[in-house]
């Protein structure tokens, strides 16, 4: 339920809006779905609920531009994985072991985990489309969690093996059924698809580094024809990049536009980055998975320096929590290390500021998905997607620099309140769900996924994985 709220006398408002700046002792007025006013001593009426802002930082909700939300049940399975391990287990075994109900629970709990950590918008790169029912279930999970998101329907086909949740006949007789089904989903759930809608329809391309360019062109045309607002894809993963220069080739085909959003892109060439900048394409760096899985150094700062729309993503929860504080921190310190090491002597000036990564996690994300007029900053007239970070404990008190506190000190447990679209979805540090009951449903789902995954023909799938990897490293 939306309503009328006033956050009274917040210690700090980190607005990410240049004209508002970072005022102290400031009020924020929220009415219905919108931020109405930001400033000192705002007038409110008796029907405004007052929220005490003492020792609180108010900041925009985080925007996660790359997430496979369905993977909740697989938390911690990939903490020692490099990319080939991930491809074998997540993309060939566990993915094929998900029923529609598992996809629902994965997306629902994954979106709740995001909200708990202050992520108010996510790009759900949803490659768990084992059947049309999986697509419905994944969308329903996002709806029930009340998160703002774009559901990016993926064409990826999990492999079929005896005991998997794949329909062998459907995959063999109509292997491109997902294109048609994406259209059905658009019609069923996303008739309006306007910028202010909580959920919007997007599309995920087949893996561009492994897909013929003409097929990618057809997929982009299809996505645009059904009204997908964000068209996303993995691309150019450093040492796992076969050198196909996808963006350059899509440019030659006149397919590049601001609705495209590439994740990773650690090995984009200079000319590709310039094309990305020119056409306003979004880029998402996922520092945790890129640094862990051998995908090379995150490109975010290089892209940002060239004027590209650089943003951040969590990617997977099988090796990292859905925590944007952590992504900001990891990217910032890795970049500082890289730039300081490149100097001939010791660093006399700080290479990179905390504010740069906070921008990527908020306004940068909003720009990358074309919603910078709707979300991403504490600006009157924008949708009320914001978080209240409590700083009265031993780790967070006192605060001299609120941006430094958000980037280098805070974690999800400091988030007292989360607003999405003017509605409180976390308050008093707690989500509005019955977690013990939900946890038991999640536990049952984990048990059934693990039981099915045991039937996977490991040796055959390893051979298929090796082919996949060979194609990724075929560059001369
Ligand atoms: Zn990914």
From TrEMBL:
SUPFAM superfamilies: Composite domain of metallo-dependent hydrolases, Metallo-dependent hydrolases. InterPro entries: Amidohydro-rel, Metal-dep_hydrolase_composite, Metal_Hydrolase, MTA/SAH_deaminase. It comes from the Eukaryota. Pfam families: Amidohydro_1. GO terms for molecular function: hydrolase activity, acting on carbon-nitrogen (but not peptide) bonds. Residues 57-425 form the Amidohydrolase-related domain. This is Amidohydrolase-related domain-containing protein.
